[in-house]
User: Which sequence fits this backbone?
Protein backbone atom coordinates (compact mmCIF):
# COMPACT_ATOMS: atom_id res chain seq x y z
CA UNK A 1 0.00 0.00 0.00
CA UNK A 2 2.95 2.38 -0.46
CA UNK A 3 3.24 4.67 -3.47
CA UNK A 4 5.37 7.70 -4.19
CA UNK A 5 8.68 8.82 -5.63
CA UNK A 6 11.51 6.31 -6.11
CA UNK A 7 13.21 5.16 -2.91
CA UNK A 8 16.75 6.14 -1.99
CA UNK A 9 18.52 2.99 -0.79
CA UNK A 10 21.88 2.68 0.98
CA UNK A 11 22.38 -0.89 2.16
CA UNK A 12 25.28 -3.12 3.18
CA UNK A 13 24.87 -6.90 3.25
CA UNK A 14 27.33 -9.27 4.92
CA UNK A 15 27.33 -12.89 5.92
CA UNK A 16 28.70 -16.38 5.54
CA UNK A 17 25.93 -16.83 2.89
CA UNK A 18 26.12 -20.64 3.05
CA UNK A 19 25.01 -22.77 6.02
CA UNK A 20 27.81 -24.41 8.00
CA UNK A 21 27.87 -28.18 8.11
CA UNK A 22 28.11 -29.56 11.66
CA UNK A 23 31.32 -31.30 12.75
CA UNK A 24 31.19 -35.12 12.51
CA UNK A 25 30.22 -36.99 15.65
CA UNK A 26 33.06 -38.31 17.79
CA UNK A 27 32.09 -41.94 17.21
CA UNK A 28 32.11 -41.56 13.42
CA UNK A 29 35.14 -42.97 11.60
CA UNK A 30 37.77 -40.42 10.70
CA UNK A 31 37.43 -39.07 7.19
CA UNK A 32 40.38 -39.45 4.83
CA UNK A 33 42.68 -36.41 5.03
CA UNK A 34 41.89 -33.75 2.44
CA UNK A 35 44.52 -31.87 0.50
CA UNK A 36 45.56 -28.71 2.41
CA UNK A 37 44.21 -26.35 -0.24
CA UNK A 38 40.78 -28.03 -0.25
CA UNK A 39 40.54 -28.06 3.56
CA UNK A 40 41.45 -24.40 3.78
CA UNK A 41 38.86 -23.41 1.21
CA UNK A 42 36.10 -25.28 3.09
CA UNK A 43 36.89 -23.51 6.35
CA UNK A 44 36.97 -20.08 4.77
CA UNK A 45 33.50 -20.62 3.33
CA UNK A 46 32.16 -21.60 6.74
CA UNK A 47 33.68 -18.98 8.98
CA UNK A 48 34.72 -15.92 7.00
CA UNK A 49 32.63 -13.00 5.87
CA UNK A 50 34.49 -13.00 2.56
CA UNK A 51 37.60 -14.87 1.47
CA UNK A 52 39.26 -11.57 0.67
CA UNK A 53 38.70 -9.85 4.04
CA UNK A 54 39.50 -12.57 6.61
CA UNK A 55 42.42 -15.04 6.64
CA UNK A 56 41.91 -18.79 6.74
CA UNK A 57 41.39 -20.33 10.21
CA UNK A 58 41.82 -24.03 9.41
CA UNK A 59 42.70 -25.25 12.93
CA UNK A 60 40.66 -22.67 14.89
CA UNK A 61 37.55 -23.28 12.80
CA UNK A 62 37.47 -26.97 13.71
CA UNK A 63 37.80 -26.06 17.38
CA UNK A 64 34.88 -23.61 17.07
CA UNK A 65 32.69 -26.29 15.51
CA UNK A 66 33.61 -28.85 18.14
CA UNK A 67 32.65 -26.35 20.86
CA UNK A 68 29.29 -25.58 19.21
CA UNK A 69 30.10 -21.91 18.51
CA UNK A 70 27.75 -20.43 15.94
CA UNK A 71 29.33 -18.60 13.02
CA UNK A 72 28.46 -15.03 12.09
CA UNK A 73 24.93 -14.70 10.67
CA UNK A 74 23.88 -12.88 7.55
CA UNK A 75 23.31 -9.17 8.21
CA UNK A 76 21.62 -6.35 6.34
CA UNK A 77 22.15 -2.76 7.52
CA UNK A 78 21.59 0.67 6.04
CA UNK A 79 18.85 3.18 5.29
CA UNK A 80 15.82 3.48 3.02
CA UNK A 81 14.48 6.99 2.39
CA UNK A 82 11.09 7.70 0.88
CA UNK A 83 9.67 11.05 -0.22
CA UNK A 84 6.20 12.34 -1.09
CA UNK A 85 4.68 8.94 -0.35
CA UNK A 86 1.11 7.79 0.26
CA UNK A 87 0.61 4.78 2.51
CA UNK A 88 -2.68 2.92 2.77
CA UNK A 89 -3.70 0.04 5.04
CA UNK A 90 -6.97 -1.92 5.04
CA UNK A 91 -7.70 -1.02 8.67
CA UNK A 92 -7.46 2.75 8.04
CA UNK A 93 -10.22 4.95 6.67
CA UNK A 94 -7.81 7.21 4.76
CA UNK A 95 -4.30 7.10 3.39
CA UNK A 96 -1.32 8.59 5.20
CA UNK A 97 0.69 11.25 3.40
CA UNK A 98 4.41 11.31 4.22
CA UNK A 99 6.62 14.16 3.02
CA UNK A 100 9.85 12.35 3.90
CA UNK A 101 10.87 9.45 6.10
CA UNK A 102 14.07 7.50 6.69
CA UNK A 103 14.01 3.84 7.72
CA UNK A 104 17.09 2.47 9.51
CA UNK A 105 17.72 -1.26 9.09
CA UNK A 106 19.95 -3.45 11.23
CA UNK A 107 20.92 -3.79 14.85
CA UNK A 108 18.38 -4.70 17.51
CA UNK A 109 15.49 -2.93 15.77
CA UNK A 110 14.25 -1.35 12.58
CA UNK A 111 13.49 2.32 13.21
CA UNK A 112 11.84 5.22 11.44
CA UNK A 113 13.20 8.65 12.18
CA UNK A 114 10.51 11.10 13.38
CA UNK A 115 8.13 11.39 10.44
CA UNK A 116 5.89 14.39 9.73
CA UNK A 117 2.63 12.93 8.42
CA UNK A 118 -0.85 14.02 7.37
CA UNK A 119 -3.81 11.74 7.86
CA UNK A 120 -6.91 13.41 6.48
CA UNK A 121 -7.38 16.51 8.68
CA UNK A 122 -4.96 15.18 11.31
CA UNK A 123 -1.34 16.33 11.25
CA UNK A 124 1.42 15.13 13.53
CA UNK A 125 4.87 13.66 14.00
CA UNK A 126 5.59 10.01 14.75
CA UNK A 127 8.53 7.67 15.21
CA UNK A 128 8.22 3.88 14.91
CA UNK A 129 10.43 1.03 16.14
CA UNK A 130 10.08 -2.56 14.94
CA UNK A 131 11.99 -4.79 17.40
CA UNK A 132 14.23 -7.54 16.05
CA UNK A 133 15.42 -10.80 17.61
CA UNK A 134 12.21 -11.25 19.56
CA UNK A 135 9.79 -14.10 19.96
CA UNK A 136 6.49 -14.59 21.74
CA UNK A 137 6.75 -16.67 24.95
CA UNK A 138 5.87 -20.31 24.58
CA UNK A 139 2.58 -21.62 25.95
CA UNK A 140 2.96 -22.55 29.58
CA UNK A 141 6.09 -20.46 30.03
CA UNK A 142 6.58 -19.09 33.54
CA UNK A 143 5.32 -15.55 34.09
CA UNK A 144 8.83 -14.28 34.82
CA UNK A 145 10.11 -15.73 31.56
CA UNK A 146 7.19 -14.21 29.65
CA UNK A 147 7.93 -10.77 31.09
CA UNK A 148 11.62 -11.08 30.15
CA UNK A 149 10.80 -11.98 26.54
CA UNK A 150 11.30 -8.96 24.23
CA UNK A 151 8.07 -7.65 22.80
CA UNK A 152 7.64 -8.12 19.06
CA UNK A 153 4.93 -5.46 18.82
CA UNK A 154 5.75 -2.24 16.96
CA UNK A 155 6.41 0.66 19.28
CA UNK A 156 5.51 4.23 18.38
CA UNK A 157 5.57 7.77 19.75
CA UNK A 158 3.18 10.32 18.26
CA UNK A 159 3.11 14.07 18.88
CA UNK A 160 0.32 16.49 17.89
CA UNK A 161 0.09 20.25 18.24
CA UNK A 162 -3.72 20.30 18.35
CA UNK A 163 -6.38 17.61 18.14
CA UNK A 164 -10.15 17.70 17.95
CA UNK A 165 -11.71 14.51 19.33
CA UNK A 166 -14.54 14.51 16.78
CA UNK A 167 -12.14 15.10 13.87
CA UNK A 168 -9.82 12.39 15.16
CA UNK A 169 -12.65 9.87 15.45
CA UNK A 170 -13.89 10.61 11.94
CA UNK A 171 -10.39 10.29 10.50
CA UNK A 172 -9.60 6.91 12.06
CA UNK A 173 -13.01 5.26 12.24
CA UNK A 174 -14.99 6.97 9.50
CA UNK A 175 -18.06 9.13 10.07
CA UNK A 176 -21.74 8.36 9.99
CA UNK A 177 -23.82 11.49 9.71
CA UNK A 178 -27.50 11.77 8.71
CA UNK A 179 -27.82 11.69 4.94
CA UNK A 180 -24.38 10.18 4.27
CA UNK A 181 -23.34 6.68 3.28
CA UNK A 182 -21.69 4.45 5.87
CA UNK A 183 -17.96 4.51 5.16
CA UNK A 184 -16.26 1.49 3.65
CA UNK A 185 -14.20 1.17 6.79
CA UNK A 186 -17.29 0.79 8.95
CA UNK A 187 -18.58 -1.89 6.58
CA UNK A 188 -15.30 -3.74 6.87
CA UNK A 189 -15.17 -3.48 10.64
CA UNK A 190 -18.78 -4.67 10.86
CA UNK A 191 -17.77 -7.88 9.08
CA UNK A 192 -16.32 -10.84 10.94
CA UNK A 193 -13.65 -11.07 8.23
CA UNK A 194 -12.57 -7.46 8.65
CA UNK A 195 -8.83 -6.95 9.12
CA UNK A 196 -8.11 -5.92 12.73
CA UNK A 197 -5.63 -3.28 13.68
CA UNK A 198 -2.13 -4.70 14.18
CA UNK A 199 -0.99 -5.13 17.76
CA UNK A 200 1.19 -2.18 18.80
CA UNK A 201 1.90 0.02 21.77
CA UNK A 202 3.31 3.46 22.35
CA UNK A 203 2.63 6.97 23.63
CA UNK A 204 0.58 9.88 22.32
CA UNK A 205 1.04 13.51 23.30
CA UNK A 206 -1.00 16.56 22.29
CA UNK A 207 -0.52 20.19 23.20
CA UNK A 208 -4.29 20.70 23.07
CA UNK A 209 -7.24 18.30 22.73
CA UNK A 210 -10.69 19.73 22.05
CA UNK A 211 -13.32 17.49 23.64
CA UNK A 212 -16.64 19.14 22.90
CA UNK A 213 -16.93 22.29 25.03
CA UNK A 214 -13.83 21.35 27.06
CA UNK A 215 -10.21 21.87 25.97
CA UNK A 216 -7.49 19.70 27.50
CA UNK A 217 -3.86 20.88 27.37
CA UNK A 218 -0.52 19.10 27.72
CA UNK A 219 -2.20 15.73 27.33
CA UNK A 220 -0.38 12.40 27.18
CA UNK A 221 -1.27 8.71 27.35
CA UNK A 222 0.19 5.26 26.87
CA UNK A 223 -1.82 3.14 24.45
CA UNK A 224 -1.95 -0.58 23.71
CA UNK A 225 -3.81 -1.70 20.57
CA UNK A 226 -4.98 -5.30 20.28
CA UNK A 227 -7.40 -6.35 17.56
CA UNK A 228 -10.22 -3.79 17.59
CA UNK A 229 -9.57 -2.47 21.10
CA UNK A 230 -7.31 0.30 22.33
CA UNK A 231 -6.45 0.45 26.04
CA UNK A 232 -5.28 3.82 27.37
CA UNK A 233 -3.28 4.06 30.60
CA UNK A 234 -1.54 6.90 32.41
CA UNK A 235 -3.83 9.49 30.82
CA UNK A 236 -2.76 12.93 32.06
CA UNK A 237 -4.03 16.35 31.03
CA UNK A 238 -4.78 19.84 32.32
CA UNK A 239 -8.39 21.04 32.06
CA UNK A 240 -10.71 23.56 33.69
CA UNK A 241 -7.80 24.91 35.69
CA UNK A 242 -7.11 21.52 37.27
CA UNK A 243 -5.66 18.13 36.43
CA UNK A 244 -7.07 14.85 35.10
CA UNK A 245 -5.43 11.46 35.61
CA UNK A 246 -7.06 8.22 34.55
CA UNK A 247 -7.43 5.47 31.99
CA UNK A 248 -9.81 4.41 29.26
CA UNK A 249 -10.76 1.94 26.57
CA UNK A 250 -11.92 2.40 22.97
CA UNK A 251 -13.66 -0.50 21.26
CA UNK A 252 -14.04 -0.35 17.50
CA UNK A 253 -17.21 -1.26 15.63
CA UNK A 254 -18.01 -4.99 15.85
CA UNK A 255 -20.66 -7.28 14.37
CA UNK A 256 -22.90 -6.83 17.44
CA UNK A 257 -22.09 -3.15 17.99
CA UNK A 258 -22.37 -0.76 15.08
CA UNK A 259 -20.63 2.20 16.70
CA UNK A 260 -17.48 2.80 18.73
CA UNK A 261 -17.74 2.48 22.50
CA UNK A 262 -15.72 4.36 25.10
CA UNK A 263 -14.99 3.79 28.79
CA UNK A 264 -13.25 6.48 30.85
CA UNK A 265 -12.39 6.44 34.53
CA UNK A 266 -10.22 8.78 36.52
CA UNK A 267 -9.73 11.61 38.98
CA UNK A 268 -10.26 15.35 38.46
CA UNK A 269 -8.28 17.36 40.98
CA UNK A 270 -8.40 21.04 41.88
CA UNK A 271 -10.79 22.15 39.16
CA UNK A 272 -11.39 25.90 39.05
CA UNK A 273 -14.87 26.75 40.35
CA UNK A 274 -15.24 29.74 37.96
CA UNK A 275 -14.19 27.54 35.00
CA UNK A 276 -16.73 24.82 35.87
CA UNK A 277 -19.42 27.46 36.41
CA UNK A 278 -18.67 29.05 33.04
CA UNK A 279 -19.05 25.62 31.41
CA UNK A 280 -22.56 25.50 32.91
CA UNK A 281 -23.31 29.13 31.98
CA UNK A 282 -23.32 30.08 35.65
CA UNK A 283 -21.22 32.12 38.07
CA UNK A 284 -19.41 29.91 40.55
CA UNK A 285 -16.72 31.07 42.98
CA UNK A 286 -14.77 29.56 45.84
CA UNK A 287 -12.29 26.77 46.44
CA UNK A 288 -11.18 23.98 44.13
CA UNK A 289 -13.50 21.12 43.09
CA UNK A 290 -12.40 17.47 43.17
CA UNK A 291 -14.17 14.62 41.35
CA UNK A 292 -13.72 10.96 40.47
CA UNK A 293 -15.85 8.53 38.53
CA UNK A 294 -16.47 6.27 35.55
CA UNK A 295 -18.33 6.95 32.28
CA UNK A 296 -19.38 4.58 29.46
CA UNK A 297 -20.61 6.00 26.16
CA UNK A 298 -20.90 5.03 22.50
CA UNK A 299 -21.63 6.73 19.21
CA UNK A 300 -20.25 8.91 16.44
CA UNK A 301 -21.83 12.27 17.26
CA UNK A 302 -21.98 14.39 20.44
CA UNK A 303 -25.71 13.68 20.62
CA UNK A 304 -25.05 9.90 20.46
CA UNK A 305 -22.45 10.15 23.20
CA UNK A 306 -24.69 12.29 25.43
CA UNK A 307 -27.75 10.03 25.21
CA UNK A 308 -25.76 6.80 25.65
CA UNK A 309 -23.58 8.01 28.53
CA UNK A 310 -23.87 6.03 31.75
CA UNK A 311 -21.76 6.24 34.86
CA UNK A 312 -21.27 7.72 38.30
CA UNK A 313 -19.38 10.61 39.87
CA UNK A 314 -18.35 11.62 43.35
CA UNK A 315 -17.55 15.29 44.00
CA UNK A 316 -16.29 17.45 46.84
CA UNK A 317 -16.25 21.26 46.88
CA UNK A 318 -15.26 23.40 49.85
CA UNK A 319 -15.97 27.07 50.57
CA UNK A 320 -17.97 27.79 47.42
CA UNK A 321 -20.77 29.94 46.09
CA UNK A 322 -23.30 29.32 43.30
CA UNK A 323 -25.04 32.13 41.46
CA UNK A 324 -26.35 32.81 37.99
CA UNK A 325 -26.60 35.82 35.74
CA UNK A 326 -27.83 34.09 32.57
CA UNK A 327 -31.20 32.45 33.10
CA UNK A 328 -31.57 31.60 29.41
CA UNK A 329 -28.58 29.24 29.39
CA UNK A 330 -28.21 28.16 33.00
CA UNK A 331 -30.59 27.78 35.90
CA UNK A 332 -33.15 30.37 36.92
CA UNK A 333 -31.61 32.40 39.76
CA UNK A 334 -34.80 32.08 41.77
CA UNK A 335 -34.49 28.27 41.75
CA UNK A 336 -30.99 28.14 43.25
CA UNK A 337 -31.29 26.92 46.85
CA UNK A 338 -30.27 29.61 49.38
CA UNK A 339 -27.82 27.19 51.01
CA UNK A 340 -25.67 27.31 47.86
CA UNK A 341 -25.25 31.10 48.08
CA UNK A 342 -22.32 30.45 50.37
CA UNK A 343 -21.37 27.12 51.92
CA UNK A 344 -18.52 25.48 53.79
CA UNK A 345 -18.69 22.17 51.94
CA UNK A 346 -20.77 20.50 49.23
CA UNK A 347 -20.13 16.82 48.58
CA UNK A 348 -22.13 13.96 47.15
CA UNK A 349 -22.67 11.41 44.41
CA UNK A 350 -24.18 11.80 40.95
CA UNK A 351 -25.57 9.34 38.42
CA UNK A 352 -25.11 9.75 34.67
CA UNK A 353 -27.96 8.34 32.57
CA UNK A 354 -30.61 9.35 30.03
CA UNK A 355 -28.62 12.34 28.82
CA UNK A 356 -28.36 13.96 32.25
CA UNK A 357 -26.25 14.13 35.40
CA UNK A 358 -28.49 13.77 38.45
CA UNK A 359 -27.08 14.57 41.89
CA UNK A 360 -28.33 11.99 44.38
CA UNK A 361 -27.11 11.61 47.94
CA UNK A 362 -25.38 14.84 48.87
CA UNK A 363 -25.05 17.40 51.60
CA UNK A 364 -24.41 21.13 51.69
CA UNK A 365 -22.89 22.29 54.99
CA UNK A 366 -23.85 25.94 55.54
CA UNK A 367 -24.66 27.90 58.66
CA UNK A 368 -23.85 24.91 60.85
CA UNK A 369 -26.50 22.73 59.21
CA UNK A 370 -26.74 20.07 56.53
CA UNK A 371 -28.86 21.02 53.53
CA UNK A 372 -29.52 18.27 50.96
CA UNK A 373 -30.28 19.69 47.50
CA UNK A 374 -31.48 18.25 44.22
CA UNK A 375 -29.62 19.10 41.01
CA UNK A 376 -30.00 17.84 37.44
CA UNK A 377 -27.74 18.85 34.53
CA UNK A 378 -28.91 18.09 31.01
CA UNK A 379 -25.91 17.13 28.83
CA UNK A 380 -26.36 19.47 25.89
CA UNK A 381 -24.74 22.47 24.25
CA UNK A 382 -25.27 24.58 26.23
CA UNK A 383 -26.10 22.42 29.25
CA UNK A 384 -29.27 23.08 31.22
CA UNK A 385 -29.07 23.11 35.03
CA UNK A 386 -32.18 22.53 37.16
CA UNK A 387 -32.30 22.83 40.97
CA UNK A 388 -34.90 21.28 43.24
CA UNK A 389 -36.21 22.68 46.49
CA UNK A 390 -34.55 21.87 49.80
CA UNK A 391 -36.84 19.32 51.37
CA UNK A 392 -35.30 19.10 54.82
CA UNK A 393 -32.85 20.70 57.23
CA UNK A 394 -30.66 18.64 59.54
CA UNK A 395 -28.08 19.35 62.19
CA UNK A 396 -24.60 18.26 61.10
Assistant:
Amino acid sequence: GLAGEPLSVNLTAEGPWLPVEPAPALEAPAAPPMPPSTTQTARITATSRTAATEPARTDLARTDFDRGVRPATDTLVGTVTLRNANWRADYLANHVQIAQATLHLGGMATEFDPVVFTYGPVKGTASITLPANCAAPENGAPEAAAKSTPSCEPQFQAQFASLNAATLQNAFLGARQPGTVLSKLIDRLSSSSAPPWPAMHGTIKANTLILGPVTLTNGSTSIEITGNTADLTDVDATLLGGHFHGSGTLRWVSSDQQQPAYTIEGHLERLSAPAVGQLLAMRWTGGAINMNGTIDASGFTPADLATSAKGKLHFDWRHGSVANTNADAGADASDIPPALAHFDEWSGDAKIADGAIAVGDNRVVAGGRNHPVHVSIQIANPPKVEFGQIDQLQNP
About this structure: Residues 5 and 83 are 6 Å apart (CA to CA).
